[in-house]
Amino acid sequence: MGKSLFRWLCFSCRRLNTSFRRCPLSKKSLVIVIVCVVYLFFVVSHVVHWQQLRHIWVVKDNFGRGGGLDTLRIPHSVSVQIGAAAAVPTRSNVVYVTLKSKRHKPTNIRGTVRPKVRRKVRRGKSAFSHSKFGQLEQDAGQITDNFAPKTRRSQTGDAHYKSVVITREFDTNPQADSGISSIRIYSLRTPPWFSAQDVRTMRFLTDTKILRIKEVSHGDSPSFLMFEAETNVSPTSQKHGTSNEVCKGQCGIISSPVDTSEVFAFHLDRVLALNRTSPAVSRKFNFLHDGQPCPVALWDASLFPSGLTAGVSAVSLTWGEYQSSLKERCWLKNVSPKPSSGCSAVHHYEWSKLALFDFLLQIYNRLDQNCCGFKPRKQDACVEQGRHTGCGEQDRIRLANIICRVDETRQLVFTKNKGFFDRNEDNLDFRLLEGIKEFPEEALSVLRSSRLREKLLQSLFMDQTYWDSQGGRQGIDKLIDVIERRAKVLLNYINTHGIKVITMNV
After folding, report:
1. How many angstroms separate the Cα of 319 from the Cα of each of 339, 378, 391?
2. Which DSSP letter does residue 119 get?
3. CA distances from 231 to 63, 154, 181 (A)
């Protein structure tokens, strides 16, 4: 069979060769031209295909190292939806994040969330020592006598702050002079879960020129750092004149680098359509924490209706009172509760949103500040302060950090959103879900869908400083893996306990 085929091929080639020689010169030329055109077509197609493959390999290599995504494109289905807040692009080409295949190996994100060495901070005292603040003054430059640090006290004498002028030569954001914002926006519309005010606030926190840094303290509460920007007075400060003693314009609160989970919490809050957190971004300060990225949140004077000395507008409830208010379903359908019901001004649905948010991030400092619902570690605040031993009389344990605005007492404001990503599924705090009988439908629809990772990637990619500080795409994927696993646990909990999923428009 093989020899016959070979003979037939040889015979066919001879006949073609003989016929080609006997053809006129014009036909010979035409055949040669056609063969050359076909050969050239295949060569060009092969070269173009090879260049496309090489381009994809280069992008994947840069992407895996946590580099920029300026050349990575995705299908149209992942692009920004219609109806989102308009924004001015900060990048020229339209680029967003693609999804990659699931990993089968378990991820270890302990080193991603917090540094190996944790410095203990004494509670009730200044979180920034005088020596560190003195170093801040020294790093800020040679300050003249006119701008020397001064201690100012309010009329009550309980609140004071130190200020230091930051000159332009010690600019905290090198990207500002280059005209490139660290908030990456590639199209005329941002992701639909961000409002136009969110985008303006994020750009303000990352790109604004800083006028001075203040160390603010009041009473026995830990002090915090605040920066004051070169902007006009904000509307919130105008409404609450008593807070102007602290912030004359628009200000931002600077947190420690170990609290970077507050930035993730802000994006998760917007993706789940809860909208209860203040905008937070990551920003580097050359004169703080060795230039490590710090979480920066907007100063909200509406949380201090009577001034900083009177403290934040908080709701005072014990665990027993909180469980009773859940049974009373306070303010449901705008029905005023009875005076003997013990209801607070907070709407019933707000507790469901808070419990959902805190469970996904395992934030225990609100509903379970004594760590009674899980096994804490030695470095947790509840163990360091000795509160964990007080879980015997749970009904008397007081809730903490339950905040609302003076003009919106029905809604909660989620502050101090320090989450924990290194807590395994067998040690989750289910006490946060106790007494909750309903969950918001819009948030659960995101958790049930397969788009939670896609939305979080698209959202977190906007904050370039936070994205790079977590190790790029690989580090962000590890954090999202934790949220996805906890979401599955929460969905199983909802199905097992028959909890309702309803629309919550409050």
Report:
1. 19, 24, 11
2. -
3. 37, 23, 17
The answer to whether residue 340 scores a pLDDT higher than 60 is yes
Which residues share a beta bridge with 161?
152, 216
Cβ(271)–Cβ(456) under 8 Å? yes
Residue 402 has pLDDT above 90, yes or no: yes
The number of beta carbons lying within 10 Å of the beta carbon of residue 228 is 21
- Helix, strand and coil content of the chain, in percent to the nearest 5, comes to 45, 15, 40
Listing DSSP states for 414-464 in one string gives B------S---GGG--GGGGTT--EEEHHHHHHHHSS-HHHHHHHHHTTBH
Question: Residue 395 gets which letter from DSSP?
Answer: G
Cα(493)–Cα(439) distance, integer angstroms: 12
Q: How far apart are CA 263 and CA 456, in angstroms?
A: 12
Name the token pair of 153. Answer: 């006290």
User: How far is the C-alpha of 315 from the C-alpha of 403, rounded, in Å?
Assistant: 6
Q: Are 227 and 214 in contact (CB under 8 A)?
A: yes
What would the pLDDT profile of 2-55 be if each residue is shown by its tens digit? Answer: 677 777 677 777 777 777 677 777 777 888 888 888 888 888 887 777 776 665
Q: Are 274 and 443 in contact (CB under 8 A)?
A: yes
Instruction: Give whole-number Cα distances, 477 to 184, 283, 312, 464, 497, in Å.
Output: 19, 21, 35, 15, 30
At 92 the three-state DSSP class reads coil
C-beta pairs of 480-485 under 8 Å, 24+ apart in sequence: 480/452, 480/453, 480/456, 481/103, 481/107, 481/109, 482/107, 482/109, 482/421, 483/268, 483/360, 483/361, 483/452, 483/456, 484/452, 484/453, 485/425
- Say whether pLDDT at 170 is over 70: no
Residue 289, number of CB atoms within 10 A of its CB: 15
* Six-digit token string for 427: 């040690």
Cα-Cα end-to-end distance for the chain = 83
> Exposure of 330 by Cβ count < 10 A (0-12 exposed, 13-18 middle, 19+ buried)?
buried
Contact 389, 313 (CB under 8 A): no
For 184-221, the three-class secondary structure string (H helix, E strand, C coil) is CCCCCECCCCCCHHHHHHHHHHHHCCEEEEEEEEECCC
**Tens digits of residue pLDDT in 94-132:** 444 556 555 545 444 543 444 444 454 444 444 444 444
User: pLDDT tens, 192-205?
Assistant: 999 999 999 999 99
Inter-CA distances, 298 with 41, 101, 166, 251, 324, Å: 60, 36, 19, 6, 34
What phi and psi values does residue 377 have, to the nearest 5 degrees?
-100, 170
What does pLDDT average to over the chain? 76
